[in-house]
């Protein structure tokens, strides 16, 4: 409170002096300000104004380094970064063996030993070669290479984080266009921090922000970002723009929808993800209190927002687990979408042989997917749904539940998961386009969204949202937006790197007939070990390749 008190006293003294000066020079305007006896009403007014102006002055001074450094870098770049030591590099090609001028590739790397100035490694950020005029012979001519040299020892953090930030900015510019410029920059910086290793918590993101401001001011900046009411109201629009950009040009999309506790039991997250090869791509999320879990009105608003992102001719396939029942099927059917849903528990179905319990269908299941027929789901006439039924039971995988001594026992949760895992897949759908094997293959991709949840919440394998302490739905919503943006950037980066064949260099083995490390883990390793490779990537180009290959990628049986 020392700084707050200092600002308050300085502003209060200034207001008192200014009020006396005004009363002396302009007595017809403010003669009461010059009275010797202090008026309590006037004192209360001056103290209130001093408190507000002192608080405003403190906030401005907290952000002053960021503002001034940003302006100076634009107006006078060399002021904060003086001209470094220069090195002349001479190439002596053998002209007898080459009849054409020697081409020095752009961004070629040079290595030098440390001299009087301790620079362990020198990397050129830009290199150009001035060739002799074409009419002159290259013999006895010297090419000049101009390089911007960077001191890696002093600027290593900036070098390793800037390629990722440029990647974020180039890809997210159009998506974040409706936002205020300051919120755009803050959101991109927060996404870049998560990509570069920050956990999905307020303080961790603040500590990983780049820039010259103090860590305290960076954490305050993230705090203001998460609590920004305007951004919280714009999150749904951003999600829609993300979905539109990713699914643009796709004739068919397979959407995975599921609920998950986020990040504690007080909130639930309803998410739609695009099924892909490997991890799913998160598209849209909605954070609500736990009391509204599986609420039909929440489902309706969510599907309405999702439907606005697709063109009328897009074939939408929605895959969900057994937690979606009742009006859910009607809501999907009214939009002309195909749904593939699992049914569990004591539900009844009728395919022409009378009403049967879903839980009793295990005797009919086998390791070969079968079509049971067309019929009704639910005996209640007000909640009956027409569709097609499929049944399949996979072979036992031989898994055993292993719990460490540190983990608390949760027998009810374990028993429920064991029962669901051993139960056959009883699938209900409104389409006959796919064979039984294809239906089961499509439903098996539903696990991708569970991996997506783990990527965000797990502190060991993901972004560590579980460590978060945010207690308002608005802040958790902004965190889910940052997680979505970071996941998309890393997924597309890994996809582009894999298409270039770079993934083989980061494997622990020589396997080439299948994927060994996930796309997100590949991007994480490249950012950690070789961040300058990101300068060669274009996420928009990678997204275009995904859109062209998507149908063949997802319809592999």
UniProtKB/TrEMBL annotation:
The chain crosses the membrane at residues 476-497. InterPro entries: IS4-like_transpos, RNaseH-like_sf, T6SS_TssF, Transposase_11. One of its GO terms (molecular function) is DNA binding. Keywords: Membrane, Transmembrane, Transmembrane helix. The keyword Transmembrane helix applies. Residues 117-132 have a biased composition (Basic and acidic residues). SUPFAM superfamilies: Ribonuclease H-like. Residues 115-141 are annotated as: Disordered. GO terms for biological process: DNA transposition. NCBIfam families: transpos_IS4_2. This is Transposase.
């Amino acid at each position: 409170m020392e700084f707050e008190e200092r600002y308050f006293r300085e502003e209060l003294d200034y207001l008192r002096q200014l009020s006396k000066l005004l009363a002396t020079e302009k007595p017809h305007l403010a003669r009461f300000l010059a009275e010797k006896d202090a008026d309590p009403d006037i004192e209360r007014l001056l103290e209130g104004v001093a408190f507000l102006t002192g608080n405003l002055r403190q906030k401005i001074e907290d952000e002053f380094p960021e503002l001034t450094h940003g302006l100076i870098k634009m107006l006078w770049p060399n002021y904060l970064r003086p001209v470094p030591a220069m090195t002349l590099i001479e190439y002596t090609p053998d002209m007898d063996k080459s009849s054409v001028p020697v081409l020095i590739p752009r961004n070629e790397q040079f290595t030098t030993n440390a001299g009087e100035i301790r620079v362990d490694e020198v990397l050129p950020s830009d290199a150009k070669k001035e060739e002799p005029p074409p009419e002159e012979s290259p013999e006895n001519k010297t090419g000049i290479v101009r390089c911007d040299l960077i001191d890696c020892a002093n600027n290593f953090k900036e070098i390793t984080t800037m390629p990722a930030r440029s990647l974020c900015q180039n890809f997210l510019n159009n998506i974040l266009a409706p936002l205020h410029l300051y919120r755009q920059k803050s959101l991109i910086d927060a996404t870049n921090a998560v990509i570069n290793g920050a956990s999905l918590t307020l303080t961790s993101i603040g500590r990983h922000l780049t820039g010259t401001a103090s860590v305290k001011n960076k954490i305050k900046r993230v705090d203001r970002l998460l609590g920004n009411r305007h951004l919280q109201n714009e999150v749904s629009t951003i999600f829609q723009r993300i979905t539109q950009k990713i699914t643009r040009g796709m004739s068919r999309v397979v959407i995975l929808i599921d609920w998950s506790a986020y990040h504690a039991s007080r909130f639930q997250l309803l998410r739609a993800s695009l099924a892909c090869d490997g991890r799913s791509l998160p598209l849209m999320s909605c954070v609500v209190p736990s009391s509204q879990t599986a609420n039909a009105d929440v489902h309706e608003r969510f599907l309405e927002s999702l439907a606005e992102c697709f063109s009328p001719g897009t074939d939408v396939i929605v895959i969900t687990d057994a937690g979606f029942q009742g009006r859910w099927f009607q809501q999907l059917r009214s939009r002309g979408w195909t749904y593939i849903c699992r049914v569990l528990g004591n539900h009844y179905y009728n395919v022409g042989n009378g009403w049967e319990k879903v839980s009793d269908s295990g005797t009919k299941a086998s390791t070969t997917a079968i079509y049971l027929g067309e019929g009704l789901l639910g005996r209640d006439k007000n909640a009956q749904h027409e569709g097609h039924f499929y049944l399949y039971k996979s072979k036992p995988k031989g898994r055993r539940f292993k719990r460490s001594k540190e983990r608390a026992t949760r027998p009810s949760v374990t028993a429920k998961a064991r029962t669901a895992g051993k139960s056959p897949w009883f699938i209900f759908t409104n389409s006959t386009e796919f064979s039984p094997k294809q239906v089961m293959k499509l439903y098996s991709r539903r696990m991708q969204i569970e991996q997506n949840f783990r990527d965000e919440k797990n502190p060991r394998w993901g972004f560590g949202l579980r460590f978060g302490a945010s207690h308002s739905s608005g802040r958790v919503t902004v965190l889910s937006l940052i997680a979505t943006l970071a996941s998309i950037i890393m997924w597309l980066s890994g996809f582009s790197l894999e298409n270039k064949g770079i993934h083989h260099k980061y494997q622990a083995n020589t396997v080439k007939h299948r994927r060994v490390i996930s796309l997100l883990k590949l991007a994480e390793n490249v950012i950690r070990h070789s961040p300058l490779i990101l300068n060669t990537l274009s996420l928009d180009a990678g997204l275009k390749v995904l859109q062209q290959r998507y149908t063949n990628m997802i319809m592999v049986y």
